[in-house]
Amino acid sequence: MPVKSPDTTTSSVACTTRHVVQEFLAARVAGDIERLVALFADEVDWLLAESPAVPWIRPRSTGAECAAQFTDLAEHTVAEDARASVDTFLVDGTDAVLMGHLSGTVRATGKSLEGPFALRLTVEEGRITRHHLYENSVSIAEACAAS
């Protein structure tokens, strides 16, 4: 059996990471919660700045809880107004970083939210083990606050 060079192994890991993240994005756009649950590991290092004013932002750690965040978000925002664009997609081994811009409207208040985001994902053994999202939490909290 031939021995893989480190470059081949590194490239293979990065390809797997890229593929899983692309699957994650496709499932996210499709609202395919079952696929999201399958893509997340059983235990996930989840980071999203907590805000008591934002009903879809809370601590999560299991794959099912992480996938449910997308259902929670859909319940509290206007689907027709939701926009996200990815300007940068970087992969380094098991880590991927997506950067872009998001916007939307909070259903309960009718207020808009918008701003840049960065999402760091780690893929191990074909599943997402880290989901750290950095976003404009002030804009989001303000959009959720009643006037």
Please characterize this protein's 3D structure.
This protein has 147 residues and is of the alpha+beta class. It is 37% helix and 35% strand. The protein has helices at 6-30, 33-39, 63-76, 137-144; strands spanning 40-48, 83-92, 95-105, 112-124, 127-135. The protein has a five-stranded mixed sheet with strand order 1-5-4-3-2. Strand 2 (83-92) and strand 3 (95-105) form a beta hairpin. The radius of gyration is 17 Å and the shape is elongated. It starts with 5 loop residues before the first helix and ends with a helix. The model has no long low-confidence stretch (mean pLDDT 90).
How would you sum up this structure in a few lines?
Helices cover 37% and strands 35% of the residues. The chain has helices at 6-30, 33-39, 63-76, 137-144; strands at 40-48, 83-92, 95-105, 112-124, 127-135.
What attributes characterize this protein structure?
alpha+beta; 5-stranded mixed beta sheet; 37% helix; 147 residues; single chain; elongated
Low-confidence segments: none
Structural class: alpha+beta
Q: Give the strand order of the largest sheet, numbering strands 1, 2, ... along the chain.
A: 1-5-4-3-2
- How are helices and strands ordered from N to C? HHEHEEEEH
Helical fraction equals 25-40%
* CA-CA gap between termini: 67 Å
* Tally of contiguous helical segments: 4
Number of DSSP E strands: 5
What's the overall average pLDDT, rounded? 90
- Label the overall shape: elongated
Fraction of residues in β-strands:
35-45%
Rounded to an integer, what's the Rg over CA atoms? 17 Å
